[in-house]
Protein: Aspartate--tRNA ligase
Organism: Raineya orbicola
Amino acid sequence: MFRTHTCGELRLSNQNENVTLAGWVQTIRDKGSILWIDLRDRYGITQITLVENKTPAELFETARSLGREFVIQVSGKVAERESKNPKLPTGEIEVWAEKIAILNPAEVPPFKIEDETDGGDDLRMKFRYLDLRRNIVRKNLELRHKMAQETRKYLDSQYFIEVETPVLIKSTPEGARDFVVPSRMNQGQFYALPQSPQTFKQLLMVAGFDRYYQIVKCFRDEDLRADRQPEFTQIDCEMSFVEQEDVLQMFEGLIRHLFRSVKGIEIPTLPRMSYEEAMRLYGSDKPDTRFEMKFTEITHLAKGKGFQVFDNAEIVVGICAKGCAEYTRKQLDELTEFVKKPQIGAKGLVYVQCKADGSFKSSVDKFYTQDDLRTWAEAMQAQAGDLLLILSGETAKTRKQLSELRLEMGTRLGLRDKNKFSCLWVIDFPAFEYDEEAGRWFAMHHPFTSPKPEDITFLQNGELGKVRANAYDMVINGTEVGGGSIRIFDKNLQAKMFEVLGFTAEQAEKQFGFLMNAFRYGAPPHGGIAFGFDRLCAIFSGADSIRDFIAFPKNNSGRDVMIDAPSEIFQEQLEELGIRLVKNKQL
Amino acid sequence: MFRTHTCGELRLSNQNENVTLAGWVQTIRDKGSILWIDLRDRYGITQITLVENKTPAELFETARSLGREFVIQVSGKVAERESKNPKLPTGEIEVWAEKIAILNPAEVPPFKIEDETDGGDDLRMKFRYLDLRRNIVRKNLELRHKMAQETRKYLDSQYFIEVETPVLIKSTPEGARDFVVPSRMNQGQFYALPQSPQTFKQLLMVAGFDRYYQIVKCFRDEDLRADRQPEFTQIDCEMSFVEQEDVLQMFEGLIRHLFRSVKGIEIPTLPRMSYEEAMRLYGSDKPDTRFEMKFTEITHLAKGKGFQVFDNAEIVVGICAKGCAEYTRKQLDELTEFVKKPQIGAKGLVYVQCKADGSFKSSVDKFYTQDDLRTWAEAMQAQAGDLLLILSGETAKTRKQLSELRLEMGTRLGLRDKNKFSCLWVIDFPAFEYDEEAGRWFAMHHPFTSPKPEDITFLQNGELGKVRANAYDMVINGTEVGGGSIRIFDKNLQAKMFEVLGFTAEQAEKQFGFLMNAFRYGAPPHGGIAFGFDRLCAIFSGADSIRDFIAFPKNNSGRDVMIDAPSEIFQEQLEELGIRLVKNKQL
């Protein structure tokens, strides 16, 4: 046996016991006549002590040959410490070493294995197994484990059963790009890796499984933005004989259970906000509701006073930043620069400072009287000391720009506390969105989402923009953590859906024939939801990036730099698969 | 709300309640003045009753328009049944229909949705979502869910943490064929799908995770034998600071927990058998120990009496089939035919019937006296009434042949009861096996398995056949359900291992450099195990095939015939990936 206890286990009650520990050398402090080793494992740190004249001399020699991250085994007696460390659970004791064995030496690690490390991102990714030794990173993965456990516990208690769906499936043209897998046994054909188990979970409903879930890897071959990964994990769920209300209740229950069991937090009932309202009040379908600062439209108040910019705008809309009236010229310029950044794209920013004396100072003073500005301030429920920030232009774009500015102001004002959680449902999404570039309609959620019954006439008429869907997103702190819908379960409606999305009957049959076929044999009403598990873990931890919640993530080029994947394969492998590389002539 | 109760929920205590159920029409019995519908969902069956003069007439009309597998919603009052059905949990009540809504009609399914179905394999695979409706198939997947739940419960209680390892990894030449995934962002390069998370779990040990597990999909692109799947699931585990004994104890605990919690069975302590002993006594490294019938070698007794076949054999070995002395000529011929089948490959079978009167009758009577045969019978502990079955030839082949014959006899004698479970550990496996065809040594388990310390000199000398490994398999009822080993954690020993396996230093570095590198920074002693989860579920259920424990399995050509995958992809997809198909000229 390598150890009798872990490094996080010994207490004063173990005094005088003979124990054996094993772990990594965190630090060595050598005072000549006395030497301490901090021995670390996943469970904690225990102080090992060597004292001149009490500890065999050769142990000092061994101890002095140790370096950081050596793996050692220590036997000795548990003793009460003279100077206790109340910060450590093991801080009341130390182990008086009687035997030290070096299990494996270690070279000096390329960066410090501490919470505050000196290693850069690239180095830490290359030596991920060392980065994972850091408490802070390991704790993220322990949180993830706990989240998965508690998710399963809740869903099991609600009679969901976990079913594994296949990873080698069929490529479909809709949605993001598939990763494909050439088949050796069926040369010239390919499997695809699933972007989600969507159709399989619907088939499980047709199969009568009633309540399904799976914590499952999904795959998207997209150009990786800052915080995307080519493989990611979903909590994927589906229920039969449900309406939207049933699904919202069930998964509000899940998120409440997770906050309670993982964070010890009771969250209030989730407010529900329509997509229309979210866009109107926050300019976003995933509003950060940790703070108010809602939009106020002042189009009718601002037009007709000779200020061309507003006069020509479809919308004039602003936010009220509490207590910011005294922003300096420099601060105001920064905000203007912010909204003019290419990724935001506003032409300019109008501000109104509501002075302490009741007067107003604005960047458009030559067009508007004090009375004009007072009507704006009143509409925006501003008080003396507040700052109004106003954008104008085409409705959708302007709202999006103001949403960014709102978030920026929230950050500047410290209103986006990572330890505070504000959850809500956004509902009544449009069923379709028009892609100007592609010149066609796409399903906003996916082609299996049912339209609201009252909007089906719009679907029949081809007024796709007016069709709302039985779709819903769960939003926490301005991030969409999950989304789902009530599905179509009628084969004719599903066929109609594919038709308006531009599929020919043949294409629909070829790609999704199996699903529409399944609907012929008694499909129950059903709906579900999928949560982005990596993201959910990051939010629970108050972190920005999902990368530190994935044990072995890939970088922005989709590479695993630790194992050096992807990599070239052997010519024989290509031949067996019946494929050939097209050499890039520019190389 | 679609339902107030499920179809498995109502009892006599619900009498007179107004309820709403939803589900599938299992059967309709129409007696004219009274009509019953058996309504089915995942949870059970409830009898819906319509009675003339009590039920509104139009409900009869609706009910008579229903067909098998229609999805309906029924509201009504719970009443006590006149003729109760004690076989059904809901058998004491029925629901007097007051309202019936057809939620979705159904075409006549292509086969019966019953335990005994009339659908052939191919048809049931194509309509898998209907096959899954059958109780018998759904129960398999419910068992699987329960097995996964209980596995997690046990491992969680032992401080294991579940960590997800990547699916897009690096192709390695050792082992079975990899499925590969062409990279779009890194054209000309490929990811591979993991055959197991072996190196990642070892890196997690280097990272100090101490106890890891994962229920995880793995992939092998092999020609599919009868009961293999290209994607399969493992319970993958690894522990640090352990010796073989620690691992065996821990996972004996897991299997005991599973038998107890899933089957209600207390299994005895698992016997341990060395590989050498298993081969000697059962001719197999996965002996079916539900029955004895061990091998007895009678080489020394059988040689030198002029029977050329035995005289020229390396080994003469037999089994004693209790009570089979009176096998007919036809039965004995069948056994001879059996061992001569090409896949078994014996040249012939020698038998000795131990007659009730103490005499012997054998197929080699002209070479052996009654006394000769008596020495055989005594060696094999045979009694009057028993039948000795004897094979001879080259040791390894003969043992293998006799193993097949032993299993055949076990089956014929009804000794392989699927509801009886016999578990054991097979230990002390050889580290290497020689592949005559390839003309080289391969790692029997894998190249990361540590040799037994006392056999390391053989490794240094190149006497690879003598090196035993710290490797172990768990065997249940003649099937290997799990296997593992204590790993190498010393970089020099690992390098030596790659060397004797024929890797050049460059190849080893290129393929496994990251692992050997990791060993430089303080790798702890570690070891682990992986269980074949699909197989384990099948064995627990007493089933032969894993296919019915996988929701959406593939056929023997690796195809999913339901969704029709793999399939062709678009030319643009190929171009984006920088690959081209090599057309098969024979087509």
